[in-house]
Amino acid sequence: MNARVETVTLQLGAAQVIIPAQAAAMAYLEKILDESRPIPLAAPAGRRSAPAIGAKWLGGEYAGLTIFENEPYDLVLVSTEFDRGDHEAALKWSEGKNAMLPSRFDNLVLFTNMKDRFKTDYYYWCADLRAGSPGCAWGQGFVTGYQFWVTG
User: Higher-confidence residue: 115 or 29?
Assistant: First the structure.
């Protein structure tokens, strides 16, 4: 007698893909466990309905929709309290908060929706390094939204 196998059915356009549920769950868990970077300052979009900009949410303030690894994400501003330091120190500080520095794109969302949360006489590190320039990373100003690269 054959045992019943639970399956997951995915609809891809007009086609259906049927996968054993255990295999789908294992693939998902392997993907999660394989990621060695800190949790981003975002939660996958669509899991919950998004709150208003600036509302307390997921341990920070909801900042709007962004993109992370080519997927839509809800951006959450965790903190703006990092005191001056180089890019490496900023990366370590964010890891200590179990978060990530915002990307250049994230910073555009933050400038558009929450620039009043940031000092205007200060620049903030982006996670992104400047391509072709070893030791340079991008910074974000919150007066005009200007992004620039900084050695550090």
Answer: 115
Structure tokens at 28: 């998902």
The letter for the amino acid at 40 is: P
The full 3-state SS of the chain, as one line of letters, equals: CCCCCCEEEEEECCEEEEEEHHHHHHHHHHHHHHCCCCCCCEEECCCCCCCCCCCEECCEEEEEEEEECCEEEEEEECCCCCCCCCHHHHHHHHHHCCCCCCCHHHHHHHHHHHHHHCCCCCEEEEEEECCCCCCEEEEEECCCCCEEEEEC
pLDDT of residue 43: 46
Q: Evaluate if residue 143 carries a pLDDT over 80.
A: yes
Q: 71-77 and 136-141 as β-strands: parallel, antiparallel, unpaired?
A: unpaired
Q: Do residues 63 and 95 make contact, with C-beta atoms less than 8 angstroms apart?
A: no
pLDDT above 80 (res 123)? yes
d(CA 50, CA 68): 16
Interatomic CA distance for residues 96 and 111, integer angstroms: 24
In sequence order, the 6+-apart residues with CB closer than 8 A to the CB of 39 are 98, 99, 100
